[in-house]
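Session log. Operator J.P. requested a structure for one protein chain; no other inputs attached. Running the standard single-chain path with token output.
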Amino acid sequence: MRQGTATDSQTLISFLSVWRDLFMKKMIYGAISCEVTAAENCTYNCHIPCDYHKETVIYAAEHFFLRCEKTLRECTHESWRLRIAKGKKNHSKFTYVVPAVLMELPGNWVRISCDIDAVGVTIRKIELLREHPCFME
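Structure written below.
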């Protein structure tokens, strides 16, 4: 049996990162698909004590969009609608406020601000909140 080399492990790591980019971020509902990504300038605000890095919170938000059936259905249909629309605006903005426990994040609430276009969902801002935004001062 052949021993693993450094190039084998590098190849495996690059394969897994490509696989994650291609398949883990694609939302599919029925025959419609779109992608979920974080913007290059995605902001992360934490209003609670938290040791999580920005990349971890972004991954949790992307995973939430992929696993929550309601958001999956709504986002893929809106992206599809924008894809086939002619002469109308080609993107829209929306915000979700969800319990933090659904994303396995600390705090009580998570506010996600996103843009949606023909390609899919782009996460612009993520906030970890102690209180629901309706009750904040």
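Operator note: The longest strand covers residues 32-46.
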